[in-house]
Amino acid sequence: MSFEVRAVAKYIRMSAQKVRLVTDLVRGMDVQEALDVLRFTPKAAAYEVRKVVRSAVANAEENYGVAADELYIAEISADEGPTLKRGRAGARGRYKPLLKRSSHITVVLSAKQA
């Protein structure tokens, strides 16, 4: 039985570079192992990635009736979202840009081959 289950979190207010540090930790892992690793990873992005993985597991259970034990993370990525351009006054009348970045997290789960 070959299928893919997706979950996407959009407009996460964190740079994609920071989120990628966490997604690289769990790529290719079994779902339960990945959730355990994310739970104890001391980065803010781990919370957001964990939410998306749990959402993908819920999609698999609801739509395909597949248990979480049978799934692994086939693909996981963090892409850049839109950047909010803000600024603040700098010295000598200058303008200092503040780029508030966002990201989109995509998780694709697949069933383990028996």
Give the topology, please.
Elements: E1 4-12, H1 16-26, H2 31-39, H3 44-64, E2 71-80, E3 84-89, E4 95-100, E5 103-111
Antiparallel strand pairs: 1-5, 2-5, 3-4
From the structure above, extract its key features.
114 residues; alpha+beta; three-stranded antiparallel β-sheet; two-stranded antiparallel ribbon; 5 strands; elongated
Count every beta strand, where a strand is a DSSP E run of 2 or more residues: 5
Radius of gyration: 17 Å
- Overall shape: elongated
Strand content: 35-45%
What average pLDDT do the residues reach?
95
Instruction: Show unreliable segments.
Output: none
From N to C, what is the helix and strand string?
EHHHEEEE
Q: Reading side by side through the largest sheet, how are the strands ordered?
A: 1-5-2
Distance N to C terminus:
10 Å
Number of helices: 3
The major sheet is characterized as: 3 strands, antiparallel
Helix content: 25-40%
* Backbone structural class: alpha+beta
